[in-house]
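Bench log. Compound arrived from synthesis this morning; before running ITC I wanted a structural hypothesis for how magnesium ion sits in the protein. Inputs:
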Amino acid sequence: MIEVKDLKKHFRTFKKEQGLKASIKSLFHREFVDVKALDGISLDVKQGEIRGFIGPNGAGKSTTIKILSGVLYPTSGYVSVNGFEPWKQREKYVKNIGVVFGQKQQLWLDLPSVDTFHLNKEIYDIPQELFTKNLDYFVKLFDLEDIIRRPARQLSLGEKMKCELIAALLHDPKIVFLDEPTIGLDVLSKEKIRQFIKKVNKDKGITFLLTTHDLDDIENLCQKITIINQGKIIYDDTLQKIKAEIDTKILDVKFSKALKEYKVPEGIKILNKGDMEIKIEVDKKKHKVDEVIGYILKHYAINDINVSNPEIEDIIKKIYSQSK
Ligand SMILES: Nc1ncnc2c1ncn2[C@@H]1O[C@H](COP(=O)(O)OP(=O)(O)OP(=O)(O)O)[C@@H](O)[C@H]1O
Ligand SMILES: [Mg+2]
């Protein structure tokens, strides 16, 4: 559905020193620098997939989405989305895709969202019957009957985002690009949006490419993730595999009395420590978890031990640092 090979996007910007003198000088002589926003990325997203596309700030996520949705030209590389080259045959292509930028509104703020929906009906040439059917389906799914009749400007961030999603879906696109759709939302709204995406993906088979900084989004929605860092793909596989690759357990130990000093077996990493508690990371390739627990029980008086998996956030941090 989405095929990308060796995609590059370089932005040419110019360097400017501070100060008036430098400003005047730069009028006559500009020193250019090339920013390699995308430095040869490849992607392969299958039909019906919800792909998570994650990476730190400035990694190149939005640039990728802009190229895939045809807003930006690439510097070089091959892109095919549902058989289209996104920046060609624009009018035909946009009927295949939907785009939501969490940081940028597409609703007309002075109009009720339902009016924006009607405008989209004209722009995308949506047949009346399909329009009514889809509007009904999405509005019920989000429970937004009243909200869509109020000027978008008056809506909360979460309500607006739900309307944005509907606006991007009414023309039955095959692929939807979501750039941080849950940014700034509360836990409940985030959860509603996740359920919505899941249901729409299941009911309509729509393919989603989703960027987010919220790893709960990824855990809830995506089987496969692609991690990008400094314009390069550093991981492209299942979430489980990452978790398995980094084969660690986290032990939270609560002592029954305050301890000034304590020891852990050699090679065990201490993540956090206090008088009454310690948090350690056990690399299962080096240690057996039950032996580490045995060691702790033998040497200290314990109130509680909790064994858990590492947070995905920590896993990704590790991958980022390994790729540097
Ligand atoms: N129009 C532009 N001109 C110059 N540089 C740009 C432009 N757009 C993006 N960049 C640069 O390209 C790099 C990638 O930016 P991009 O917006 O794709 O990052 P991102 O992964 O979406 O980050 P974030 O998580 O902060 O949204 C950054 O270094 C950014 O400064
Ligand atoms: Mg971005």
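What the model suggests: Residues 61-62, 179 surround magnesium ion (ligand 2) (CB under 6 Å). The CA atoms of residues 10 and 36 lie 5 Å apart.
ITC booked for Thursday regardless.
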